[in-house]
Amino acid sequence: IFKFLGAISVDLGQDRIKPYLTTILTPLYRELNSNYSEQDPTLKNLSQEIIELLKKLVGLEAFSLAFSSVQKQANQKRAMRKKQRALQTVANPDIAARRKLKRHKNKAETRKRKIESLRPMYKAKRHRSHALKDLAMVE
Predict the structure, then answer these.
(1) Is the full-model pTM beyond 0.70?
(2) Radius of gyration of the chain from Cα atoms?
(3) Centroid of chain to Cα 136
(4) What is the rounded distance in angstroms from the CA atom of residue 118 to the CA atom of residue 27?
(5) Residue ranges of the domains in the chain?
(6) Distance between CA atoms of 113 and 118, rounded to whole angstroms?
(7) Phi-psi bin for 41: left (phi > 0), alpha (psi -120 to 50), beta?
């Protein structure tokens, strides 16, 4: 998709690409700023190359305006999600408690995996699945 965006940008030219600049920059910015662990470095490099291409194509001023608007939108979305999460914690404490328990469980499992990778002889105790017990209706 990034290659397609770059090809369309070059094909449209300087004047016709300006209205679509923020639309094109949004996924490129998201890829550049992502910090998840399984990130593909080739995608990051490709997005950086396309951003440089767009910068040369439309000029620094137009590019800077579009890029800053994309940054602003991303920051607003991030702040909105954070605010909604905080409100949900207050409005629905049971859901928040379940989310917290799940997060702690995942953290413990991650810690066990890390210990096993560092010390291969050590086997951490794993949570055993009690399928029938989980199915039973317990109050």
Answers:
(1) no
(2) 23
(3) 37
(4) 37
(5) 1-121
(6) 9
(7) alpha
